[in-house]
Structures are given as structure tokens and as C-alpha cells.
Predict the structure of Helix-turn-helix transcriptional regulator.
Amino acid sequence: MTLHLYDKDINDLILEKKYPLPASEQRNVMECTTSIDHNIGNAYYKEIYFMGVHIGYGNLALNNKTIVSFESDFETVEMHFALKGSNSTYFTNFSEEISFKPFQHNIMYANSLKGKMVWDCKGFEVFEVNLSPSFFKKYLPEDTSIFNSFRKIMDSGCSSMMKSQNHQISNEMYAIIRDIIQCNRDGIYKRMFLEAKVIELLLLQLEQLKDPISQTKLKKQDVEKMYAIRDHITQNMAEPCLLIDLAHQFGTNEFTLKRGFKELFGTTVFSFWNDIKMQEAKKLLLRGDLNVSEVSNMMGFKNSRHFSTSFKKHFGQSPSQIC
């Protein structure tokens, strides 16, 4: 199973990757990282694969808008998540181009594809999971017309998207993606964890894709600001979460921030901030090398008593009960 990437302008082979077949008995977790330093720009891509599952995530920073040709000789179902940036793909066996804007996701069946990709010069980040068709079909429901149609397309061997329009990545999806990227388990425990998370992520995708796309009333620039604020909170969870400060920092106002964040992520700014803080604190405590006071300080609490009260309110257990 092989993937080739070419610089279209100079017909230069940028990357050649060989993988074990998705259906092979690859029970151990294999990992590799690819870094590209090319005249078109720089890229980082981390891959994790085991029996029937191939996880990939990374980022690309380009000097200019770039067209890259590609060809692959394998059959796969791809769960695609565009975290940042935009890209378009033109396939020889697709009637229309496939485009992803920031914060969108979809599922695609691909069978020996060939075509070209147009990458935005601003760069982008992507997370994708490729599944063997046999693995994917185990979890594809049979009670919905869109899923039955997709199953027939797969059986025919014709590449296609599950939905003609992409859906917005939900906050729950982001949380699972973050768990997968940050997983530090080893051996069979890592495989069990990753496989469970992939199935959970697929569940959320299928639930969302079976429904019509809900139209947001937010302007495009406000949507981008809400996602930027969400990322900022995630990366700085120990800092105070004040609406007025966040609104000013990202060029919006408190009303738009409250309404937009709740509309896109289904929760308030404070609830989101508190939840990710508590989840991170729990992970640190379960790791076992930090005490309650140390975790409290890392999460930005002024004293461990306040932290313990908040933790118990969130999980129903005190921090000392899970250490």
C-alpha cells in the first residue's frame, strides 16, 4: 500500500510512503513521524497505525499557494477533520472537487485515488483516521438511507463522500481528538485506548452526518473568532477566564461571545473552561506522580481547598479519592 506526493510545478517526488495493508494482522501499535523541509514549505505529520486503523495528524506551513499531485493504490474509509486552514482536492474519479474549510469534517470512501491538492498558503492543520472498509462496516448503521447508500457505494468500489456538504466539528469531537493526540500509553493499552476513542469519534460523526446541516446565524469571521477563543482557552486553561478580556483580545464583544460560543459548542465559555480544567486535573492525578496541591497550582487555583471543592462538584469525588 503506497502513497506518492509530487510537486506539480516541477514534477518532483516530495514523499513516498509505504504502509501495511489496513486489513493485515498488525496488532502492535506502530508509529512514525514525517518532517518535510521542501522549497514549497515545511510540514510535520505524525502517524499511528494498527490492525484496521491508521491515525494521522499534523500541520503544513507553505511559502505560497501550492498544487501537489498525488496517487494511492489502496482502499480506505477516511474520517477527515480540518482543524485549521483550507484545502481543495480534485480526483480523477470524482465529478466535483472536495473542499474543506476550517473546523469542518466528513467521511470519504477512497479506492485507488489519483488527483491534485490545492493547499492554502496560510497553512493548515489536519486530523484524519483511515479505516479498512471491513472495520468501518462493523459500525455503519443499517437504519438510515444515507448510510445504506454509502454502503452500496463502497460495495461498488466507487470513491465518494458520505455527505455532499461538510459538517462543523463539535466540541466533543475536539476533546476526543485531543485525547488521541495526547495519549501516552504503551503497548496493548495504547491500542485499546486508541481503538475505543476512534470508535467514539466515529459515533459522533455518524450521529451528526445523518442529520441535516444546521445553519448558524453567526458571521464567518465570528465563527473563526469563537474557534480561536476555544483554542486559546484550551491552551491556557490555568489562566483566568474572563469574558470581557477574551472578547477584547479577539476583537468581539461579550454578547457575541456568549451567544456564539453557546451556539457553536453547546456550552457556555465558563462551563467549557471549567470542564477541560477538571478533565486535565483528573488525568494528572491519575498519572500518580503529582499530589493534590501540585495539580491545584498547575490548574491555576489559589488554594487546594478551592480546587478540591470544584473537583468534587464536577466528578462527585474528592481529588484524594482518586490519587
